Amino acid sequence: MVYFQKMTPEGYKQIEDEIARLKKDRPRRIKILQEARSMGDLSENSEYTTAKMELGHLQSRLRYLDKQLRYAEIIKPDSTGKIDLGSSVQLQFEDDDEVQDYKIVGRMEADLAAGKISFDSPLGQALMKKQAGNVVEVEAPAGSYQVKIISVR
Q1: CATH 1.10.287.180 residue ranges in the chain?
Q2: In CATH, 5-74 is 3.40.50.300
Q3: What is the per-residue pLDDT for 23?
């Protein structure tokens, strides 16, 4: 069974950009490894060991990111006004007058500090397919709370 990773077009582009950056850096890392190898005895050559390890990490990251793209399912925002992957929302949490902006994204793109919440997080799950004006109950590990949806874009 193949599991497709849901993500926004922006998340897909971010992965493509990181792959391009890593591929651009690979020749430099290979050159460092070759230079370290030419220094002599490899068993006591810390430069060689470090360069080999760093190149291995880069190659591993490239394989991981490539797999993410291969199994990506790009979801575009719902145009019906209901919250879906890619939607930007303004929320007002209970007992708080402040309105906060969030974007609903795929699991790999989530970054709460940047205002990006995963569609499968407790808050994301509660918001999915709801509309502006709805009040939703969020069942989180720390307890339940209510959120009012101010707007959906």
Answers
A1: 5-74
A2: no
A3: 98
| Block mean pLDDT (10 aa), the chain, length 153 | 85 97 97 89 84 97 96 85 94 92 95 96 96 96 95 94
- Answer yes or no: are the C-beta atoms of 124 and 104 closer than 8 Å: yes
Tokens 């609903």 — which residue? 104
Q: CATH 3.10.50.30 in the chain: give the residue spans.
A: 88-152
Q: What DSSP character marks residue 111?
A: B
Where residue 129 falls (left for φ over 0; alpha for ψ -120 to 50; beta otherwise) is left
At residue 126, the 3 state secondary structure works out as helix
Q: Which CATH code for domain 88-152? A: 3.10.50.30
The residues, ordered by sequence, that sit 6+ positions from 117 with a Cβ below 8 Å of its Cβ are 102, 103, 104, 105, 110, 123, 124
Question: Which pLDDT score, from 0 to 100, does residue 1 have?
Answer: 65
Cα–Cα dist 118/35, whole Å: 44
**Six-digit token string for 85:** 């992957």
- Is residue 71 within 8 A of residue 4, CB to CB? The reply is yes
- pLDDT number for residue 76: 81
